[in-house]
Design brief:
Blueprint lengths: L8 H8 L7 H11 L7 E5 L5 H8 L3 E6 L9 E4 L7 H8 L3 E6 L9 H22 E12 L4 H9 L2 E7 L10 E9 L2
Parallel strand pairs: 1-2, 1-4, 2-3, 4-5
Antiparallel strand pairs: 5-7, 6-7
C-alpha cells in the first residue's frame, strides 16, 4: 500500500467528521487564515467530487454549483456531471442564479508519474479555473486553486496576481509531505 493509499491522521479525521476526503482541511485552513469564503455566498466548485469542499461550503450557508465527472452525494447543491472543459460559464451562471462570489478548484489530472508532464497538465486545469473565475466572479470575488509546483507555477501565480488584489500561496498542513501541490488563495477580483 502506497503513502497515498494508506489512511493518515487527516484521512481518519475527515471520515470521523463525515467528509469524503482529507482535502476539506486544506480549504478550511485557508478560510480560517484568510476569512476568504463569504458566508451564504454563491460559489462554483470545479473538480467537486467526492464533495468535501462542496460540503464545507454548504456548511457555511453557501449556494454551491459543482462540476466533475461524478456528482458528490450531498443533500444540497447543484452538480453538473461532465468535464469542466465542456461546461460554459453561461451554464454555471444560470445554475448559480447569477454571478459568483467565489470559485474554488481542487482539480488535478490523472497523474502518470512524469513530474513535468503532470505539472503541465495540472497548470492547464488551473488556467481553465482562472478563465472560468474571470467569466463568473463578481468584482471583489475570491478564488482558490490547487497548483502543482514546477517551472510554470511562477508565471501562473503572476497571472492570478494580475487579476486579484491579494494573493497568498499556501501548503496547508493536510497536504501530504511528499506532495508537489500548493494552493493559491486570492481575494478582491478586479473584474
Amino acid at each position: 500500500m502506497s503513502e497515498y493509499q494508506r489512511p493518515d491522521h487527516w484521512t481518519k479525521k475527515a471520515k470521523a467528521q463525515g467528509y469524503a476526503a482529507r482535502s476539506v482541511f486544506k480549504l478550511q485552513e485557508i478560510d480560517d487564515r484568510m476569512r476568504l469564503i463569504p458566508k451564504r455566498g454563491k460559489i462554483v466548485d470545479l473538480g467537486c467530487y467526492p464533495g468535501s469542499w462542496s460540503r464545507y461550503l454548504i456548511g457555511l450557508g453557501c449556494a454551491v454549483v459543482g462540476v466533475d465527472f461524478k456528482a458528490p452525494e450531498l443533500p444540497t447543491g447543484t452538480f453538473l456531471v461532465g468535464s469542466v472543459m465542456d461546461v460554459t460559464a453561461d451554464q454555471l451562471r444560470e445554475a448559480l442564479g447569477g454571478a459568483a462570489d467565489g470559485l474554488v478548484s481542487d482539480m488535478a489530472p490523472s497523474t502518470g508519474g512524469n513530474r513535468f508532464t503532470d505539472h503541465c497538465r495540472q497548470i492547464e486545469l488551473a488556467r481553465v479555473a482562472l478563465t472560468m473565475a474571470e467569466a463568473l466572479l463578481k468584482p471583489g470575488g475570491c478564488f482558490v486553486v490547487k497548483v502543482f509546483d514546477g517551472e510554470d507555477a511562477p508565471v501562473f501565480t503572476k497571472e492570478v496576481e494580475a487579476r486579484f488584489a491579494e494573493v497568498r500561496r499556501f501548503k496547508p498542513e493536510a497536504t501530504r509531505d511528499r506532495s508537489v501541490e500548493f494552493v493559491l488563495a486570492a481575494r478582491g477580483f478586479r473584474g
